[in-house]
Amino acid sequence: GDSVTQMEGPVTLSEEAFLTINCTYTATGYPSLFWYVQYPGEGLQLLLKATKADDKGSNKGFEATYRKETTSFHLEKGSVQVSDSAVYFCALPSGYSSASKIIFGSGTRLSIRP
Amino acid sequence: DAGVIQSPRHEVTEMGQEVTLRCKPISGHNSLFWYRQTMMRGLELLIYFNNNVPIDDSGMPEDRFSAKMPNASFSTLKIQPSEPRDSAVYFCASSLGDRASPLHFGNGTRLTVT
User: Fold this and answer.
1) For B104, which residue in chain A has the nearest alpha carbon?
2) Beta strands in A1-114 (DSSP E)
3) Do B67 and B75 contact (CB within 8 A), yes or no?
4) pLDDT digits (tens, 9 = 90+) for A17-31
5) Mutate which of A52, A101, A109 to disrupt the B interface (most B C-beta within 10 Å)?
6) Which of B103, B104, B107, B110 to mutate to test the interface with A (most CBs of A within 10 A)?
7) Which H or E run includes B89?
8) What would the 3-class secondary structure string for A78-93 be?
9) Do A44 and B56 lie within an 8 Å CB cutoff?
């Protein structure tokens, strides 16, 4: 079945460091891929998405490229800030139906030191 | 756009009591999802609806849990009777229902059962 595997956390970096959070997936067909972010005390919110192979999603300095060959959608940011401290989730819709459920990875907690 | 609205924000109750969580999805969205989040189990999909019809309730833990969506603008998740292991943050999310559309999450209800 469809699945998402995320890099285990927590990840701790210093401010201005380069960030990579790995995400690989198993899916039927070529679904849209998503990264969500959850700040403390809040619900998840969409960070970026890509709808087809080789698409690059980007937002707030974060980027992720839909790689069909490696079934990956790794999240990157060139220079992280303390305000990026949060939990990050990779996700995809499961199945072909338009009424699809969304499968989330286990989440990666990111902490940025000043 | 008011976003997904959940109530109450916090609920503290005693074991054995009935608990009702409420959700108002974004107007025009036709899919609604209930998730539960805990440190131990992460983010779990409990049930989701499409056009007010339950599509998949396989994530509902047991018969003590029930969910309804009487119309497009309102859903409830009920736990009767509640148990301490039900303590978690419960999120409601809605979407346009197609595979490229992201979920929009509410801020959650933090349930504590003593």
Assistant:
1) A45
2) 3-6, 11-14, 19-21, 23-26, 33-38, 44-50, 56-59, 62-65, 75-77, 86-94, 101-104, 108-113
3) yes
4) 999 999 999 988 889
5) A101
6) B103
7) strand B88-95
8) CCCCHHHCEEEEEEEE
9) no
Distance from CA of A46 to the nearest CA of B (A): 7
At position A27, the amino acid (one-letter code) is A
- Nearest one of A32, A45, A5 to A94, comparing CA atoms: A32
Chain A positions touching chain B (beta carbons under 8 Å): 31-32, 34, 36, 41-46, 49, 51, 89, 93, 98-102, 104, 106-107
How high is the pLDDT of residue A70?
95
Stretch B8-34: mean pLDDT, rounded? 97
Residue stretches of chain A with pLDDT short of 70: 95-99
Amino acid identity at B19? V
Structure tokens, B101 = 């559309």
Mean of the per-residue pLDDT values for chain B?
95
Question: In this complex, do A43 and B93 lie within 8 Å of one another by their Cβ atoms?
Answer: yes
CA B37/CA B105 separation, integer angstroms: 13
pLDDT, tens digit, 9 for 90 and up, residues B92-106: 999 998 888 899 999
Judged by CB atoms closer than 8 Å, whether chains meet at A99 and B31 is answered as yes
